[in-house]
């Protein structure tokens, strides 16, 4: 064989990769033409594309309500004498409706929120797609559809006024440093969306965590429910957990008519989407149950300990459920099938750790009352160890049983 024959056919490889890229974009709308035929394969209708599509559909209730709530909170701010900002995002909205007013209805409120959400989502989507294409070309692999959900989850935990350059920077860090450097989809051990958010949260706190970022009006200085609780503005003295169900303020937080990020406010919408995720078996109920159990036990422990200086000690678990990003993290972030534990017992322990760490951070670190982000990233690091311990325990038990 000559030296020329030994050279790889680069042109042929790039042609094949181009065919794969075209097949990917066609498969977004049409059924993929290839399927396995051998007897050793499990053949069903679930692939990466359909999995990501189902996750997106499950997120739809939280997204739609979140967009509407952006308009609601802006309208409430207008009644306080504030004004809408003079920004390019509102060019089309103001041209079609004349701007947001105190009399704007459902369509106007939804359109106002959509004007701010779409630029953020498209920025995250395009940047995420760019890096996915770059790494797919370098590795000569197929382009996976995971970037759709990564971009979606990343934007849902951002404040409405986050600058687009920070959005691009955050999703870049999440995709590259939390996923691609470890081999791409299926090889990452950290949630890319949360890793990207953690990076910009600590790198640019005044641009991401500032209270003025949560409502799209000029001069807004309100606070989220969780921030108010951490500041001691909400009193939970002699407040039992079941009293929340007769408290209008709690129901307001449960339905989502509060200040918050893009789509974390409505616990009801998130739980409805999360239930669909569990019913389709894309999320494991053991993780959700573990997170809830860990959160409830830890909250009750702090309630019993009590503190005269820290009001968060008295915060019941019913309020932990409806404040911050707990519900979104529990249903859609912690259940990421790639970064979670794989054994059944490991998943339950993994969930308990997240619930425990969330309340621990919220109560003891008042400068960062939102603990679900760090709790999930911390548990991601421990997930392989949980699986290892469970597997070793099973092996020892079987060896002992067989030796008898």
From TrEMBL:
Indicate where this protein resides in the cell.
Cell membrane
Gene Ontology cellular-component annotations: plasma membrane
* A matching Pfam family: NQR2_RnfD_RnfE
What is the enzyme's main class? translocase
Q: What UniProt keywords apply to this chain's record, in alphabetical order? A: Cell inner membrane, Cell membrane, Flavoprotein, FMN, Ion transport, Membrane, NAD, Phosphoprotein, Sodium, Sodium transport, Translocase, Transmembrane, Transmembrane helix, Transport, Ubiquinone
**Family, as annotated:** Belongs to the NqrB/RnfD family.
Protein name, please? Na(+)-translocating NADH-quinone reductase subunit B
State the species of origin.
Shewanella colwelliana (Alteromonas colwelliana)
Q: What is the lineage of its organism?
A: Bacteria, Pseudomonadati, Pseudomonadota, Gammaproteobacteria, Alteromonadales
Q: Which gene encodes it?
A: nqrB
């Amino acid at each position: 064989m000559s030296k020329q024959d030994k050279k790889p056919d680069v042109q042929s490889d790039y042609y094949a990769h181009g065919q794969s890229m075209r097949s990917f974009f066609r498969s977004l709308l049409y059924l993929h033409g290839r399927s396995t035929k051998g007897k050793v394969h499990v053949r069903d209708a679930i692939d990466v594309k359909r999995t990501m599509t189902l996750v997106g559909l499950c997120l739809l209730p939280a997204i739609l309500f979140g967009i509407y709530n952006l308009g609601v909170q802006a309208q409430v701010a207008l009644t306080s004498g504030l004004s809408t900002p003079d920004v390019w995002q509102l060019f089309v909205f103001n041209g079609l409706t004349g701007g947001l007013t105190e009399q704007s209805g459902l369509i106007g409120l939804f359109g106002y929120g959509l004007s701010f959400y779409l630029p953020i989502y498209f920025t995250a989507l395009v940047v995420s797609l760019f890096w996915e294409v770059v790494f797919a070309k370098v590795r000569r692999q197929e382009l996976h559809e995971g970037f759709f959900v990564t971009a979606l989850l990343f934007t849902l935990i951002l404040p409405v006024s986050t600058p687009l350059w920070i959005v691009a920077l955050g999703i870049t860090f999440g995709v590259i440093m939390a996923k691609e450097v470890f081999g791409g989809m299926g090889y990452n051990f950290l949630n890319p969306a949360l890793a990207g958010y953690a990076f910009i949260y600590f790198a640019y706190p005044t641009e991401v965590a500032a209270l003025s970022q949560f409502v799209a009006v000029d001069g807004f200085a309100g606070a989220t429910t969780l921030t108010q609780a951490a500041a001691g503005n909400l009193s939970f003295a002699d407040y039992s957990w079941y009293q929340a169900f007769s408290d209008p303020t709690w129901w307001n937080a449960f339905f989502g008519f509060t200040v918050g990020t893009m789509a974390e406010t409505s616990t009801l919408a998130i739980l409805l989407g999360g239930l669909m995720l569990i019913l389709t078996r894309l999320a494991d109920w053991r993780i959700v149950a573990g997170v809830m159990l860990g959160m409830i036990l830890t909250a009750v422990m702090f309630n019993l300990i009590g503190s005269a200086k820290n009001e968060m000690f008295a915060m019941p678990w019913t309020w932990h459920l409806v404040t911050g990003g707990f519900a979104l993290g529990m249903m859609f972030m912690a259940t990421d099938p790639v970064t979670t534990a794989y054994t059944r017992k490991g998943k339950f322990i993994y969930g308990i750790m997240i619930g425990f760490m969330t309340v621990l951070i919220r109560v003891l670190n008042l400068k960062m009352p939102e603990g679900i982000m760090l709790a999930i990233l911390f548990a991601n690091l421990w997930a392989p160890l949980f699986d290892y311990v469970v597997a070793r325990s099973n092996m020892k038990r079987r060896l002992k049983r067989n030796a008898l």
